[in-house]
Amino acid sequence: MTNTTAAATGMADAPPTRIYLFKRFERFWHWSQALMIIIMFITGFEIHGTYAWLGFAQAVNVHTLAAWALLALWAFTIFWQFTTGEWRQYLPTLKKADKMVVYYLWGIFHNAPNPFKKTQVSKHNPLQRLAYLALLAAVSPLIWGSGLLYLFRAYWPSAGVDTWLSLQWVAYAHTAGAFMMLVFFFVHVYLTTTGHTPTAHIKTMITGWEEVEPDHHP
Ligand code: HEM
User: Fold this and answer.
1) Residue nearest to atom 29 of ligand 1 (CA)
2) How far apart are CA 4 and CA 9, in angstroms?
3) Domain ranges within the chain, ordered by starting residue
4) Ligand 1 centroid – CA 12 distance (Å)
């Protein structure tokens, strides 16, 4: 697939007006993961006792089902990331991180240009890379580790786990992970609205194509 409409129309030296950023599997993975995580929020906070809607037993069933579905999706996604080499998009860097902080705190409210120019080989700005790394290295292990311990609590006595761990601590850890995920979710959704129009980034994640300024020089 060509990466520019300019190339697609044969106008070899015209600047690209859009770039193909997200491949089909990536978009499928993104939206199905989003759906699964929203289901986990809704059912998880019902299990927690924040509100009553499906009923406790049903909420536990749906929560567990979504966890297994997410696990299967991640298995495919990890395979995809490594076979395509796309995992490199998540390697952390501090290059231009300071400029991005200034942009998010000030520039974005004063029409300053975004200091980071996306390309097919570098889709995430340095702050995004750091946020995704924190999610992958800290929040996910916390939520998955505690979730799996919660799920297999019936086996604790035979494995001797109940001699050093209480269910209450697992519940605290899991709930803390859920709140961290909630913070990530709200920041993530806010940042989707910061493209050249409020829905531009969302459209990119639906179609795969990102519109770029004529002076887009990565
Ligand atoms: C975005 C991801 C997730 C969120 C937001 C979330 C949220 C929650 C919350 C808020 C609770 C109630 C905790 C309490 O008050 O004790 C809960 C319970 C639970 N979660 Fe999750 N969770 C997520 C992922 C997972 C995963 C990946 C697993 C499994 C591997 C899992 C398994 C469980 C289990 C087994 C329970 C307890 C159900 C019961 O009481 O029988 N969760 N979750």
Assistant:
1) 147
2) 9
3) 16-211
4) 53
